[in-house]
């Protein structure tokens, strides 16, 4: 079977969604680890230095563009699969089983994914665009001179309650998307084994479902509370 | 008991169907679900009306024919039960029961509650076979097989091909069925010569038939009358991954 044929099968497409999903799981860990420095009470030195490093390191920039391609790939293949899945049942049931046979969030991956995509567009236009193409002020810290003051942009953004609410809602969608997504991607790659299911479930629920989304949500909430 | 049955009536695969409501009285708690339909059909025949077409064969829970989607559940509310083994003690006097056929593009309605499941036959034809030598019969147990593998293969072989997995899945995916058929052969040494080609061909046929893909919600496993496990789907995914990466 040729590559093109393989990745055209339903399982081949699902493997691509799963693989890109795993990459995005790794990304959210790194993203949170860096951005938690926003909460450091140093006037933005740690965060701005970190943001300047991320914005100018060649390898990071390569990964950043790769990340955007991977997000689009993940979304596009998932949309293709969702359309095919919809077509597989042209006449719908009059009575549906509700949550008796499956969890509601496992059935709403496309909805949660769409919410996350809208969130990402807002998030990127708010901070990534401002950092790269916007007119933001610069600051200097000792040896590090003339770095963009993204810290100030973030603090100004999170002073508005509706933006904070939007971010918290986005992270709720992320939580449910990852609780099912991580475990589901494992299953797609054939990782379903009595001895390892416990740890995979633990990682899926507690790391990706709770720790990461709560960690992200804490940042805008704390910044908002600091400024009122 | 008195029951209200809302049953899907459809003349053939071309025409649009609709629900028709029937009142059935004197239903005993000891009757099977199919027996209620037998009683109702006798009445319809006596009244000169068209009886409700539904599939049934063994009525012992092993043939997989009795495909009814009852109040939002494949084969009704009981776990690991076919419709013929569902008994009316599951219901109370005055209940309304909605009965629909399996709904999937790959399972077109033939009439009323009867659907065409030959798509499953074609998936099996695509790879559900093994090579055997002709000549004298081989001694039983001549090939050593790990007990766990034998048990897992046997558990996968319990699939009766009823299609409840497809009916229960929000995507009408046939992954649980296909994975059971691939697993029962992949786990045994007799199945190894065709192992890679089998997984790829059966999945290709599954896609061609118009079944959806698996989103791992687990509804199929919850509704399977034979308790086929999701570990079979993981095995099919592994088989396809290895075959897809290594075959030319």
UniProtKB/TrEMBL annotation, chain A:
The chain crosses the membrane at residues 15-39, 59-83, 109-129, 159-179, 199-225. GO terms for cellular component: membrane. Keywords: Membrane, Transmembrane, Transmembrane helix. The keyword Transmembrane applies. The keyword NAD does not apply. It comes from the Bacteria. Gene3D superfamilies: Fumarate reductase/succinate dehydrogenase, transmembrane subunit (1.20.1300.10). NCBIfam families: sdhC_b558_fam (TIGR02046). This is Succinate dehydrogenase. The lineage of its organism: Bacteria, Pseudomonadati, Bacteroidota, Chitinophagia, Chitinophagales.
From TrEMBL, chain B:
GO terms for biological process: aerobic respiration; respiratory electron transport chain. Its cofactor is [3Fe-4S] cluster; [2Fe-2S] cluster. GO terms for molecular function: 2 iron, 2 sulfur cluster binding; electron transfer activity. InterPro entries: 2Fe-2S_ferredoxin-like_sf (IPR036010), 2Fe2S_fd_BS (IPR006058), 4Fe4S_Fe-S-bd (IPR017896), Beta-grasp_dom_sf (IPR012675), Helical_ferredxn (IPR009051), SDH/FRD_Iron-Sulfur (IPR050573), Succ_DH/fum_Rdtase_N (IPR025192). Residues 150-180 form the 4Fe-4S ferredoxin-type domain. Belongs to the succinate dehydrogenase/fumarate reductase iron-sulfur protein family. This is Succinate dehydrogenase. It comes from Chitinophaga cymbidii. The lineage of its organism: Bacteria, Pseudomonadati, Bacteroidota, Chitinophagia, Chitinophagales.
């Amino acid at each position: 079977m040729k590559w093109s044929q393989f990745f055209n099968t339903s399982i081949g497409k699902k493997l691509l969604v799963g693989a890109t999903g795993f990459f995005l799981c790794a990304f959210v860990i790194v993203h949170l680890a860096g951005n938690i420095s926003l909460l450091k009470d140093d006037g933005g030195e740690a965060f701005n230095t970190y943001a300047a490093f991320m914005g100018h390191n060649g390898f990071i920039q390569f990964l950043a563009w790769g990340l955007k391609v991977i997000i689009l790939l993940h979304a596009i293949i998932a949309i293709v699969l969702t359309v095919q899945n919809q077509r597989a049942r042209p006449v719908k049931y009059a009575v549906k089983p509700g949550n008796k046979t499956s969890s509601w969030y496992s059935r709403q991956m496309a909805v949660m994914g769409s919410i996350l995509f809208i969130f990402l567009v807002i998030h990127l236009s708010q901070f990534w665009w401002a950092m790269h193409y916007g007119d933001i002020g610069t600051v200097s810290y000792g040896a590090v001179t003339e770095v963009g003051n993204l810290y100030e942009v973030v603090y100004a953004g999170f002073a508005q309650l509706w933006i904070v609410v939007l971010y918290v809602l986005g992270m709720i969608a992320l939580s449910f998307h990852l609780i099912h997504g991580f475990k589901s991607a494992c299953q797609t790659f054939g990782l379903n084994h009595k001895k390892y299911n416990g740890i995979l479930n633990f990682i899926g629920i507690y790391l990706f479902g709770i720790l990461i989304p709560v960690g992200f949500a804490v940042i805008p909430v704390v910044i908002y509370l600091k400024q009122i | 008991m008195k029951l209200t049955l809302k049953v899907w009536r459809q003349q053939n695969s071309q025409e649009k169907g609709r629900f028709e409501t029937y009142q059935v009285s004197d239903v005993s708690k000891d009757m099977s679900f199919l027996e209620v339909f037998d009683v109702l059909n006798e009445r319809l025949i006596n009244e000169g009306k068209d009886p409700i077409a539904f599939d049934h064969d063994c009525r012992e829970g092993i043939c997989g024919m009795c495909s009814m989607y009852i109040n939002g559940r494949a084969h009704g509310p009981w776990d690991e039960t076919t419709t013929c083994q569902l008994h009316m003690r599951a219901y109370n006097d005055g209940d309304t029961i909605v009965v629909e056929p399996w709904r999937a593009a790959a399972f077109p309605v033939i009439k009323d509650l009867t659907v065409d499941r030959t798509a499953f036959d074609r998936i099996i034809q695509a790879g559900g076979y093994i090579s055997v030598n002709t000549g004298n019969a081989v001694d039983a147990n001549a090939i050593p097989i790990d007990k766990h593998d034998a048990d897992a293969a046997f558990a996968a072989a319990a699939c009766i091909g009823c299609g409840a997995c497809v009916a229960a899945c929000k995507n009408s995916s046939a992954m649980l069925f296909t994975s059971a058929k691939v697993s029962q052969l992949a786990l045994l040494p007799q199945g190894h010569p065709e192992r890679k080609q089998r997984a790829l061909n059966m999945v290709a046929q599954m896609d061609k038939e118009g079944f959806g893909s698996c989103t791992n919600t687990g509804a199929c496993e919850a509704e399977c009358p034979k308790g086929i496990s999701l570990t079979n789907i993981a095995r099919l995914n592994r088989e396809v991954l290895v075959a897809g990466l290594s075959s030319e």
